[in-house]
Design goal:
The protein is mostly beta strands. Helix content is about 10%, strand content about 35%.
Length: about 180
């Protein structure tokens, strides 16, 4: 709920800002994090495609960190509660978390239940969220390029293992990140 309210506020702020030209260059404590991985990701975002509207990147993105995919979007969490609105990628502590696309950091701070959280505004109402981080490398208002390190993997959100909780949102609503991944 806190995350949804934050994203909705950020979306309203982003919509109120004048359009600028493109810049050049939680997860619960129990759940899928302790079980067998569903898949292993080795490809991470590489620099490029900055300036391309986010809506045209569907099917071309990479997950923000190499690691083990521990859940599916929309599936119920272990122990009940809300379903997964993103992905938890189990990864070694300290590994780089990379921006999946260029944009501007809308939020970079600690948020209860999510730990150290970075939200990148990609324009067109799209945002990417990266939580559970050990360290944040960017501050709100800073530009980010595709593939740029924005944080390091950690366990600040209370997960059983280190990793990154990753969401994509459009108009403040969670969307399935796997539909956008290459």
């Amino acid at each position: 709920q806190r995350l949804s309210e934050l994203v909705a506020r950020l979306a309203k702020l982003a919509a109120a800002k004048p359009k600028a030209p493109p810049r050049q260059a939680p997860a619960s404590k129990k759940g899928a994090t302790g079980s067998k991985p569903l898949a292993v990701n080795t490809a991470v975002p590489e620099p490029g495609r900055d300036g391309t509207p986010f809506s045209r990147l569907k099917g071309l993105l990479r997950l923000p960190v190499a690691g083990e995919l521990m859940n599916k979007f929309g599936t119920p969490r272990e122990g009940g509660g809300v379903s997964w609105k993103g992905l938890f990628i189990r990864a070694p502590e300290g590994a780089e978390v990379r921006a999946v696309a260029g944009g501007t950091v809308a939020f970079a701070d600690w948020l209860r239940g999510f730990g150290n959280l970075v939200i990148v505004d990609h324009g067109e109402g799209y945002m990417s969220l990266y939580s559970n981080n050990e360290s944040l490398y960017k501050q709100a208002g800073e530009p980010v390029k595709t593939g740029e390190a924005i944080a390091s993997v950690g366990n600040s959100g209370g997960q059983e293992s280190s990793g990154v909780y990753f969401e994509l949102r459009h108009q403040s609503r969670p969307i399935n990140p796997m539909a956008w991944i290459k």
